[in-house]
Amino acid sequence: MGTTSSTATVRLPGSKSVTARALFLAALADGTSRLITPLESADTIAFANGLVELGFPVRRDGDVWTVTGNSTGPLAGAANVWCHDAGTAARFLPALAALGTGEYVIDASEQMRARPMGPLLSALRALDVQVQAADGDRLPWRIAADGVAGGPVRVDAGTSSQYLSALCLMAPGTKNGLVIEVLDEVSVPYVELTLAMMRDFGADASRRGSTITIAPGGYRAREFVVEPDASTASYFFAAAAVTGRTVTVLGLGRDSRQGDLRFATEILPAMGCEVVVADDRTTVTGPDRLRSPGEVVMRDISDTMMTLAAIAPYADGPVRITDVGNCRVKESDRIDAMAVALGACGIETSTGPDWLEIVPGRPRAALVRTRADHRIAMSMSVLGIRTPGVRFDDPDCVRKTFPGFHQAFADLQRTWHD
Ligand SMILES: O=C(O)C1=C[C@@H](OP(=O)(O)O)[C@@H](O)[C@H](O)C1
Ligand SMILES: C=C(OP(=O)(O)O)C(=O)O
């Protein structure tokens, strides 16, 4: 971390979403791929271990992970894949397993078992994949796989884009490719990220309106550099926003493919922050007093909903966050979890099925219940910068995407106080 008294430069870990996709793409590419600066966290380790279980050699050696792939799918004839809390692993790995020949069990933690899987289950079954689900659509799943012929398929990605990304990622491993009709969609930038990375690994994938067409032919192995995580970066940008100080995040610049960078480039300027996006970095400087951005539609970037909610108490008017209904079916019911967390700090909120409104106030110290949701802990840590005494019942839940978060956040504040 570089220093003067009111500016800090931070280097953050790799993107969870890019790491998960790179692991999948490398697994379905003949040859050996090298992933540079991947994220090492509970989610991505679960993903990598899932690949190993499916028969793909993965070597994790510090900042370089090596994956030896196979363009026709899993090499193991049987596997027990444990996805832990990771939505990416739980939604993407069944699609990879379906391409193999054998019996694969996909299971996960109680938290992940509680999250919906229905639209992916329907799409896989429509592609003649034999899947037995334990409880309606929920994990664990038992897949009796025998390859996938492919063809047309429809998917409703209105509660999670991960179902759609999973189908896209598997498509080059099918015999005839896929023509996917998208019925509804949230988190659109994540699907754009999926298609862009598929092309990086040699796939022929195109989109026209609600139709995505992907040719068969597998992927090509390559070296791939993982950019820093833009959702993680939102906490560091938000720290600048609430303190009037400056934070530069390295490695996230003009060419970033992560939609969550829009938290810095679109939302924070509307709150009075000065934001400069350069080729290889983004810098945010907070104002003397944060402005309310009014109503903010966060359908496409809902992982940063909690970051905005946590800084909203310091704004000069109410902040209404809308179109985030799918936040209720993530690691926790995030609309409710944030309302309760802010309420514990004395901040007034109101909520609806897909919205949250925060009334500005003077937060007080409190014990925050994280509900084992990393983003509740990380976002409320931002509120805690100006409200000493905010504590967590489960601070280690940050291990899902950033095990070193509390240390890095403390280092940031120490830099400012030096
Ligand atoms: O594809 C991905 O890597 C992700 C998609 C998003 O999920 P939804 O599409 O369920 O909103 C996001 O919240 C999640 O953290 C990562
Ligand atoms: C929703 C999230 O994760 P996932 O769906 O990948 O488990 C997240 O990281 O905020």
UniProtKB/TrEMBL annotation:
List of catalytic residues: D303 (proton acceptor)
Catalytic activity: 3-phosphoshikimate + phosphoenolpyruvate = 5-O-(1-carboxyvinyl)-3-phosphoshikimate + phosphate
Major location (coarse): cytoplasm
Enolpyruvate transferase domain mapped to chain residues: 7-407
Entry GO MF terms: 3-phosphoshikimate 1-carboxyvinyltransferase activity
Binding sites annotated in the UniProt record for 3-phosphoshikimate: K16, S17, R21, S160, S161, Q162, D303, N326, K330
EC top class, as a word: transferase
Positions annotated to bind phosphoenolpyruvate: K16, G87, R115, Q162, R334, R375, K400
Keywords recorded for this protein, A-Z: Amino-acid biosynthesis, Aromatic amino acid biosynthesis, Cytoplasm, Transferase
EC number: 2.5.1.19
PROSITE patterns reported for this sequence: EPSP_SYNTHASE_2 (PS00885)
Location of the protein in the cell: Cytoplasm
Keyword Transferase part of the UniProt annotation: yes
Pathway given in the UniProt record: Metabolic intermediate biosynthesis; chorismate biosynthesis; chorismate from D-erythrose 4-phosphate and phosphoenolpyruvate: step 6/7
InterPro entries the UniProt entry points to: Enolpyruvate_Tfrase_dom, Enolpyruvate_Tfrase_sf, EPSP_synthase, EPSP_synthase_CS, RNA3'P_cycl/enolpyr_Trfase_a/b
Gene3D superfamilies: Enolpyruvate transferase domain (3.65.10.10)
Family per record: Belongs to the EPSP synthase family.
Function field: Catalyzes the transfer of the enolpyruvyl moiety of phosphoenolpyruvate (PEP) to the 5-hydroxyl of shikimate-3-phosphate (S3P) to produce enolpyruvyl shikimate-3-phosphate and inorganic phosphate.
Subunit description: Monomer.
NCBIfam families: aroA
Name by which UniProt lists this protein: 3-phosphoshikimate 1-carboxyvinyltransferase
Organism listed in the record: Actinoplanes oblitus
